[in-house]
Amino acid sequence: xxxxxxxxxxxxxxxxxxxxxxxxxxxxxxxxxxxxxxxxxxxxxxxxxxxxxxxxxxxxxxxxxxxxxxxxxxxxxxxxxxxxxxxxxxxxxxxxxxxxxxxxxxxxxxxxxxxxxxxxxxxxxxxxxxxxxxxxxxxxxxxxxxxxxxxxxxxxxxxxxxxxxxxxxxxxxxxxxxxxxxxxxxxxxxxxxxxxxxxxxxxxxxxxxxxxxxxxxxxxxxxxxxxxxxxxxxxxxxxxxxxxxxxxxxxxxxxxxxxxxxxxxxxxxxxxxxxxxxxxxxxxxxxxxxxxxxxxxxxxxxxxxxxxxxxxxxxxxxxxxxxxxxxxxxxxxxxxxxxxxxx
Length: 343
What we know:
By secondary structure, this protein is an alpha+beta fold. The protein has eight helices and 20 strands. The strands form three sheets. Strands 1, 2, 3, 4, 5, 7, 10 and 12 form an eight-stranded antiparallel beta sheet that branches.
């Protein structure tokens, strides 16, 4: 059995999907997707992501997400995402117009050993659309539910006369996620690869607060190995980490005593944090197998406080410039003409 793609359990109402698609394209402008393997005509409308912005084209996984304004108007889309059977970190409606191509590429951060899968529900498509994953040509019909292994090289050529539209969801691998797959498929995957699975455990807010403080790790900044600081706090039943100067908050799910996981990263406290003012934390990246020591202070040392101010200014300026460029690109190349072709 090949593990390139497989149809999942469940199907969806195509008429209701198309009705919400019409609503979305009427009220929201699609934005170009990130990547050098297309000419800018491949666009999307965000339904759920880390920022809650429908024009955010970054499929960044932070362990937590917000619904965009699109889901307030598109109730069936929201119903699908809320009842898909597993957590959904990022969801987008992606458009590829007639005659356009998405060149061969791989999707970073996806794969069974990365703990993240990408799932598709086609809304509008055509047999003339050439879609390949690895060495396999695939055709997924509207309303079906599919997994594709996009860690493998894949490409798309729309040789039809309609705009191809898919609802694409990025989901962490949990026990619920695996239940969507045929049993034989998962058995085959386990014979070929390790599966990094997120196994949440319950932890009350009072316990979570004991882990809060100022996080300091030595890492690369502007080409130098310097202390990088961040804030650790409680958010939505998880332990949140925000690097100072960045707008992104990473949410770590409790997975055991003193252990928290976000994507391929695990934070593990060496001792009960209530017993010390400065806690040694081991940060492990399952992707590389490397570990690093991190310190979490209950009270921020003066030296860290001073450097944090410099870090916030430098990192914040770079990030603001980057997002400013993305907004300009969306302003001048956002493709209303793409959505008008959907029917």
